[in-house]
Each structure stands twice: as structure tokens, then as C-alpha cells.
Amino acid sequence: MTSARPKIATCSLAGCFGCHMSLLDIDEKLFELVERVEFDRSPLTDIKRCGPCDIGIVEGGVCNAENVHVLKEFRKNCRILVATGACAITGGIPSWRNNVDLWDCFQEVYHYGLGLEGGQIPNDPELPLPFDKVHPINEVVRVDYFLPGCPPPAEAIWKFLSDLIAGREPKLDQAMLRYD
Amino acid sequence: MTEMTNTFTLDGKEIPFREGETIMAAATAAGVYIPHLCHRPGFKPHGSCKLCTVNIDGRPSAACTHLAAAGMRVESETEALNADRRALTQMLFVEGNHICPSCEKSGNCQLQAVAYHLGMSTPHFTHFYPARDVDASHPDVLLDRNRCILCELCVRASRDVDGKNVFGIGGRGIRSRLIVNAASGRLADTGLAVTDRAVAVCPTGALLRKRDGFSVPIGERRYDRHTISDVTTETEEERPRHD
Q1: Whole-prediction pTM value?
Q2: B14, part of any domain
């Protein structure tokens, strides 16, 4: 460890990477961010395992066994865990399947979908086991902060992160509080 | 018109009222916002959502049903009352399926706007993800029970304003649901018209006008531009646009 810069890890579970795209939307402030923090595990670094971190940003809800493993790794290693975006906080769009039987879901997607012929339901042992329901991450681990939005606006992510990095209690104005 | 000589105090502010007026009505007339969902000016008070609970001389009561009386000391904007309101709102969110990113009403939804007003960053409680029916049978109106908060505004509007009595609440407790007054139970088999007050009055996206979804883009809607506390009661509901 050569620097005292706070370490940040990010991941996308049952999400669409939209929250990560919104993080990238802070545009030129990215230069400031990379000077002030160090990134650990993240799709941005391609580091595959999370080490001890100050802040963990989790996008997406929990829809399969691998999501749980990743989420628990984040909780174990991150001092502060932030549920980021509608899916991490409420299950979001993926949770629409919570009232559809999982088998029916698979049939619709892989057998009956428009233009499909001879479709097969993927069954590779390496694929994570899907759950019958999608859950917000706070139903699996303790969460310190919630940053809503679909995605949270870039300014909200920046405000939240700069507060956390500076050791302040993160606070969003009402204008930055969005659920859509 | 009765002269308004009577007053009570609301968070220290003098509020004039007429005999027989509720605390909510007097506060609204004086331009003071008290959070609410099942209340709407012009409708008989319902007192069910409990969001408008205020302390009246130290005792909690619903502002929408409690009649104003001279000299009352009413507290509304206290940390404790707002914490209760936030918890009630969170419970409403987890009890239904309120997925704002995929809802046409987002930005015009009072449930969402109240949650913004109360600074709700998470629904906090364990989600129920209840299985609820959608009724798309009507040519012009969609009924999505996933978003219904059982405020009974459509029930009251259809019965008392439209004179059609299209809606009711069936079931008990957690199994309560909005039902449609037709032998088939389908909205298509009722006299409901898209221009009915019952459709416009819905505070959430449970009753939607079809083919109107994104005519105003997300980000430019009522509560995207104004907080719910700033929206005057006269403009609380959208008027039908294609009548």
C-alpha cells in the first residue's frame, strides 16, 4: 500500500450497468476522482477479487447465487457499503419477474420467444443458480447508505462520493433524489 | 360567508378557519402543506393513509378528519411526525409493486412525490412483491393493481362525482384489493369513461389513461419541476386531455 487514498470497489449484480455508466457521466470530474481515490475490484479495473476497501458501490439486486457471493465479499471487505440505483434498493425492473414462475420465465425466453427455433435453456454447471425471486441487497447484507435513481444522476453520484471521501455524512438535495 | 375570526396555531403560525372546517382544509387555504395521500379537496375525508397525522395539543390525530377549533395548538413539521410519515410511506412502497423506473406515472405520482418530500432514500422494509392483477380490458383505461395504495379516491370519485359506482374495496387486511363493480369483474364491462374523475383522481399509476404514457417526458413532469409541497391543491390532478 503506497498511498493513503481511499479505496473504492464497484460491482454490478442484477443490474444493467446503467449506474456505472452514470458514474462515468461525471465526465471531467473523473480525473479528479482517480487522483483522490484508488479503485479496487470494479468493471473499470477488471480486478476480479475485492480486497479491503473504504467504499463499496453495489449496483443491481440479487437474482442468483453468484450475486450473493459477490455481495458478501463486498460487505466483508468494504467499510462503507452503498446500495446504488433502483435495482440494488428495490429489486428494480428485474423484480418484475418475482410473480412469474421461474420455469415459465425460462420457457418464454428460450423456447417461445419471437424468432426462436429449437431453443435450449442454458444448463452449463458454471452458470450461477438463479433464484425464484430478485431481492434488494439490504435483504441479504447490511447496507450503510442508499443512493436511489435509475440511474442516480451523475451529479448525485459525485456529490455522494465526494461527501464520503471527505468523511462527511452524504446528503442529497431533494432535486437529486430520484427513483426513475 | 362566515367571517373568519377563529384561529388555531400550526407549527406556531396563526391559521384562520371557518366553523366546520378541518385542520387540513384550513391549512391548505392558508398555503401550508401537510403531507397526505388519501385526502383530496372536495372529497369526503377518508382518514386512512394517516400521513397527515399531526399533534393536536399533544395528541396525534388525522388533520384531514379533525375539525379545527379555536386556540388549538397543532404541530406538523416535527422530526418525529415526519419519521412516522416516512415509515408509513416506506410500508406503502413494499406492500405493493412500485417500480418507478418502469411506471408511466413516474414524475406525476403523488406517492413518489411524498416520498421525495420526506427524503426517503430506501423503502427499508422487506418487500412483499405481492401477486396483483392488471386489468387492461377497457379500451381507454388501464387498471394496474400493483400500484394501488387503497386510498379509495377512485371509489369516492366514481360514486360521489361520476355517479357510476365503478370501484370498491374487496377482501380484508393484507388481502384487500381494488375491485370493479361488474359481474365479470372487468373494467370493460362498466360504464367507466376515460374522462371520469375516478381516473384522474388516482394519486399513483394504478389508473392510467391509455396512449398517454410518455406524452410528457420523464424529467419534465409536475413533481420533476416542483416539490409536492409547492403544488397547489387546485392542480393536484391531471385533467383528461382527450375528452
Answers
A1: 0.94
A2: yes
